[in-house]
Amino acid sequence: MIKVKNAKFITSASRITQAPPPILSEVVFMGRSNVGKSTLINTILDSNLAKSSSTPGKTRLINFFETCWEDMQTNQNLTFNIIDLPGIGYAKVSKAEMEQWKKSLWEFITKRSNIKLFIHLIDSRHLGLEIDENLYNVLESFLRNDQNILRVFTKADKLKKNELAKLYQKNGVIMGNKEGEIRPQNGGKNTLRAHIFQAILHTQSPLQNLSQNNLQQSHLQNDSQKKLQDLHQDLPQNKPQIKSQKNSAQEELQNLLCSSLSLS
């Protein structure tokens, strides 16, 4: 079982230049407006850190949370950031503001080198929507070897039993407010935590593992952070094939965001 030992809000940012230094691995939560991102983050963190609003399009910032998790069986500890992104699918903003957010969001998800896992939230009551399919395809188009996408189906407690049975056939983790109605092998808080923990663990570099085990020793931590920053600068950002994929994906994502960016 995975335990969340502690979690805290770090900061909010409107663009990548305002984000915390890219030291820790990061898990990004993204999806349509009103899909339940904040609720899900609070559920897995056993907290009330992520703020939600009943007004779609109100939240306009990228929110960062630092968390420390422990595998109770192996005593392995991992410290990483969880990121709550603005949603897509609803917008009450000016054209100029939408254009700026298109650029800022694209830059963040493609250039933030320490993102290891994209959690794509999908409302289980509305499967197969074009906006969800487009978002998944865009993410997949620029995914690096050290990154993964995990589909999470939210609000499953609102489904009928036959609808829930069909959802079990989907590739993803199922979540709902009534976890007792969801098979543990298919979903629930503990299952989602395990998926996240393993995704981060398997993409950690040796230097990141070193820093995890010595967070209390500042001299080792600082040395690890410097080396990590050097490693990030060496990532193959400029290879022609990667650049071509990014250009294609950027055009598709910008078209998607232009029509449906939600700041929620």
Automatic annotation (TrEMBL):
Its cofactor is Mg(2+). GO terms for biological process: division septum assembly. CDD domains: YihA_EngB. InterPro entries: G_ENGB_dom, GTP-bd, GTP-bd_ribosome_bio_YsxC, P-loop_NTPase. GO terms for cellular component: cytosol. The keyword Transmembrane does not apply. Necessary for normal cell division and for the maintenance of normal septation. Belongs to the TRAFAC class TrmE-Era-EngA-EngB-Septin-like GTPase superfamily. EngB GTPase family. This is Probable GTP-binding protein EngB. It comes from Helicobacter fennelliae MRY12-0050. The gene is engB.
